[in-house]
Amino acid sequence: MASPIQIVFNPENYEEAREAGGGGGRKDFFAHRDAEFVVHRNAIVSQLNTISDVLAAQAQGDVGFVKVILRREAWAKSHRPVASLFRGDRIPVVGGGDLGVMIVEARPDSLRQVVAEIARAETNTVMRFNERRQKDEPNPSARKSETGAIDRVELYGPADRRNFSVEEAVAWLSNPITGSSYQVELFDSPPPRSEWDRLDDGHRRLAESFVSGFNALERGLSVDRLPSHKNRQAILSVRLEQSSDQPALRLNESSVSERRRELAVFNPDVDRHAQLLTFLDGHPLVRRIELPGIVVRATGLTASIPRSRPTSANIPIRDSRLTHPRMGIIDGGISAALSDWVIDRWDILADEDLDLAHGTFIGGLAAVGAALNGVETCPEHDGAELVDVAVFPSDRRTGAFASYYPEGLPQFFDEMESAVSDARARHGVRVFNMSLNILQPAAPD
Question: Region (Disordered): which ranges (predicted)?
């Protein structure tokens, strides 16, 4: 069964692999500018040859990832250079970056094939009479159209992988609520070592160099693969610890129970973090290195018109003979005042870590909003059966969140996913309210 929770913090880095083809005719981006096209073609060929040479000499093997940056006029799907130049059987598209940026997996041989195709593109402007429009129009070959659609090509490099400094990373990760782990997105996940013999030489060297690079960092390193969903690229949780243990590499997906273990104390040594980030910055498999987010309670808006708070309230009794809609409230708990409407609780929090105010407020609006506020404010009929998903501890006690979720956000979402799955399976709940936000470290664009 597919996971009921799928959360993306940086959607711009999670675009689906693009399909080849598309409608529309071929466009000559250099129509009647033949000399300019020759200069452009030669520049693209030079860039591809340079990248090919770099990949051929690459210590991690000859497989790399290349950004194909399209000119603004070529952002339409029909103009993507995937029919003739970057064909899927030659250089597969593995994702996208910013608008107009394709990321492809490349090798020297495949890049030389692209160069050969570009060299075959005509340098003159070919015209054809359009019967419908009754005029001559440019009619380029696929090779010329696709070559013209490209603005430039670049090897995917360290600047694409990270946008924070070592010092910023250590400062952010030193807060226990973060879980103190980098989140490292990969272009592809190395298979288990038992399957390396099935890989070609380039992909095997890529996997071997990735594992050996981690092992070379020696003591106090923990690497875990986080749960991934369909069509999502692998994400690793990478943590430096104050430990004399050899690196623990768990690069294949594991269950929630297998991932949960006692964590060693976080290692804030700047030099160790610099070593780790230098390795990750330079490895072709790494797509992105991110600092983890933290969960914070959503701040409510202040009412523009002052309202008086009643000193007492009559809570309607649930009529069990009727069928009511059901809702899960993901928060810090729901007060006993609404216990008649609460059909189940997922209560992992100790009493001193409950924060009932907001969850009770939301539950009250859902179950008895009209009775408490009047139909002018809550016109919907009263009655909603609630599942109390109390997973977010109060911030009154310093370190409360980290005591429940020492691995940070991924572990919090593991717990929430288990609770949601349980409520859905046992009570058919399909609607959940979560008034929590994810705070990310600020980074320049």
Answer: 130-150
Q: Closest by alpha carbon to 124, among 41, 205, 193, 246?
A: 41
Contacts of 349 (CB under 8 A, 6+ apart): 332, 333, 390, 391, 393, 404
- Hey, what are 258's tokens? 């297998």
Q: How far apart (Å, rounded) are the C-alpha atoms in residues 217 and 373?
A: 61
Backbone angles phi, psi at 113, to 5 degrees: -65, -40
- Looking at residue 116, what is its pLDDT? 97
* CB atoms closer than 10 angstroms to residue 444: 5
Q: How far is the C-alpha of 174 from the C-alpha of 152, rounded, in Å?
A: 40
Residue 347 has, within 13 A of its CA and on its CB side, a CA count of 17
Domain boundaries, the chain: 11-156, 161-292, 326-439
Q: How far apart are CA 445 and CA 427, in angstroms?
A: 44
Sign of the alpha-carbon torsion through 74, 80, 85, 91: positive
Give me the residues of the chain with pLDDT under 70, please: 1-24, 229-232, 254-261, 300-311, 443-445
